[in-house]
Structures are given as C-alpha cells and as structure tokens.
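Worked example 3 (structure in, sequence out).
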C-alpha cells in the first residue's frame, strides 16, 4: 500500500496534497483527476466545435436570430436518456442532468465577458439556487460546471432549462447595476 501511495504522490502536483497521510494523498489525487476530467471535456468540446465550424470567421451573437421554438433554430437540441438534456449551438454546448435532488449543469463555450452573469441571472429567474460553481478555462474555451438546487417555484423541465441557458448566449449583455 505504501508503494502505491508513493507512486500516486509522485504523479500528483504537490499543491493537491496538503499533508502526507493516506487520506490527504487519496483526496488530493481525486481532486487532481477531477480537474483532468474537466480539462479533457473542455478539449473534446473545443475539438468538436472546431470540426463543426468550417470557416475562420467568428459568429457574433448579434448576427444570430432565434425563433421561439428551438427545433427551427441554429440550436441543436436532444434529450439524453431519461435524466438529462443537451442543447448545442455554434456559441455553446449546454448539458443538464439530474443528480439526486440537484441539477448538474455543464456549459462549454468561448470566453465571453459577462456571460457568467447572464447564466446566473437565468438560473435565478427560474428559481434555481447555485450551490457550487466550478470554472475551468483553457485558451479561449471555458467550462462552467454548476450544481444547482431546484426551487419550489421552479416549473422548468431539463430541456427547457438547457434551452433558456443556451438562449442567454444570444441576448443582450447583463451589467452589474441591472442585477
């Protein structure tokens, strides 16, 4: 067991391991692996996005117009099994899943100033409470991972939540003094 712990400790950056005991080493390795998984998801999404966009010209939010129904828009929507939904567009990939009594919301997009405020405003508008937020970025791509609590007044399905968050990428910017 000690040999395995030595190997794990040597493979994990020192700032993930706070003490030398077994629990700290294992906990640090788990945190490091979670971070690596998020970076991998971000890179996979970035690779997918690059393969889908043929031209180097960026799409600006002002040039896209969304009709009321997502089936006829540039947003791709799909239900993921019985416990989740995805909503993708050229600007962002949004995934919502149930985890116990909470919702896990993952958004991969290009870095857009003020976008996190718009996402949180959408969540609060529909009675969701942000319990945890993790932000990972690599170059110009950002992964927002939310754990959100469903409020008593919330009437949205996972599919509707994914669409509402996706549409926040196409709306006007939110400024701090408006919140």
């Amino acid at each position: 067991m000690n040999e395995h712990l030595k190997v794990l400790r040597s493979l994990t950056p020192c700032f993930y391991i706070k003490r030398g005991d077994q629990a700290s080493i294992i906990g640090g390795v788990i945190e490091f692996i979670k971070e690596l998984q998020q970076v991998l998801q971000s890179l996979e999404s970035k690779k997918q996005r690059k393969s889908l966009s043929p031209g180097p010209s960026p799409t600006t939010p002002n040039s896209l117009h969304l009709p009321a129904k997502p089936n006829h828009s540039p947003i791709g929507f799909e239900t993921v099994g019985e416990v989740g939904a995805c909503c993708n567009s050229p600007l962002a990939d949004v995934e919502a899943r149930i985890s116990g009594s909470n919702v896990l919301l993952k958004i991969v997009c290009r870095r857009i100033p003020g976008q996190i405020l718009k996402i949180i405003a959408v969540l609060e508008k529909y009675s969701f409470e942000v319990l945890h937020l993790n932000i990972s970025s690599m170059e110009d791509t950002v992964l927002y991972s939310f754990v959100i609590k469903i409020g008593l007044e919330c009437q949205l399905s996972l599919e509707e939540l994914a669409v509402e968050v996706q549409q926040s990428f196409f709306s006007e910017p939110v400024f701090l003094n408006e919140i």
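Notes: Helices lie at 2-11, 22-52, 115-125, 158-167. Confidence is low (pLDDT under 50) at residues 54-77, 174-179.
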